[in-house]
# Entry
Amino acid sequence: QKEVEQNSGPLSVPEGAIASLNCTYSDRGSQSFFWYRQYSGKSPELIMFIYSNGDKEDGRFTAQLNKASQYVSLLIRDSQPSDSATYLCAALYNQGGKLIFGQGTELSVKP
Amino acid sequence: GAVVSQHPSRVICKSGTSVKIECRSLDFQATTMFWYRQFPKKSLMLMATSNEGSKATYEQGVEKDKFLINHASLTLSTLTVTSAHPEDSSFYICSARVGEGDSPLHFGNGTRLTVT
# Structure
């Protein structure tokens, strides 16, 4: 069973703080990982993707990948109330190009 | 950027009827599209992979006779929920990627299905 695991939260951080979202995956064969943001009642929107070990930064977002530990994380710096949403981690399984999602972490940024 | 259009956004139907949901790639061709289902407060569950010109590949536990998928062109896939029941009420979302390989999936806006 290919699985992607996330803490469901909710994770609450004050405005301006760093939010740290974590994800683990079970299939060592997976090579590509994605973070999506989903607002209530809406479909997911892509935030970042990462393929290589290490960090990848894009604005206030940093994705981190550690394939040895099968661990992916997303850091959000200077968190804003508008960042409040559910964050979905996904792993690409090469068989058929399927994207398997974790259960999502609900983030709440308090003004 | 890549746009995936899904229609309708909301639909209410009576038990026993069928509902068709359309998914279009607006500015790119998609040989493969993916259909997901999401229950409230739950994650996205992959239902099936839609393949242009061939049969869809269904995930374990998904009834292929109930959820009919047709991918007749490089820009259109349809999901038909046949003989709908209240337990089929859910948020259905299609997705596609530009090109092949490991590029990200782009999602449609989703269809909220309510079966009464």
